[in-house]
Inner membrane protein YqaA (Kingella negevensis), 137 residues
Amino acid sequence: MIEWSLWALAVSAFTSATIWVGTSEVAFVAFVMKFPDWAWAAFLVAGVCNTLGSLVSYAMGRCLPEKYTAKLSPDVLARLQKWGAWGLVLAWLPVLGDALPIAAGFLRLSVWRCVLALAAGKFFRYGVLWINIFQAA
């Protein structure tokens, strides 16, 4: 049961970070509440898979032909150029978070800096959720 639940959390976390709709926060909270002894595993699985999903979006942006980048918000592009890869720490935000990795890929920002920034933001989000779950309990 736990293994299947971790796989479901992994899929949810991965898809939530792409242009597909996902509900990783709900899946994470549900998993941790049902299996509190496995919270560390859920934290790691959700953080890693959500980061990997954002890297797929980064790769999509890197492959985008110039004509399709008109759909990317000029504001998002300008901010990412200003902040660099560290702007991706905010990629966990709804709506904007989906566009940030795509824009970073299009701008050819350093993939390793992007990985670090994405992971920092994603793990921070799940950490805050985890802390709130145990404070509420």
In short: The mean pLDDT is 90. The chain has one domain: 2-136.
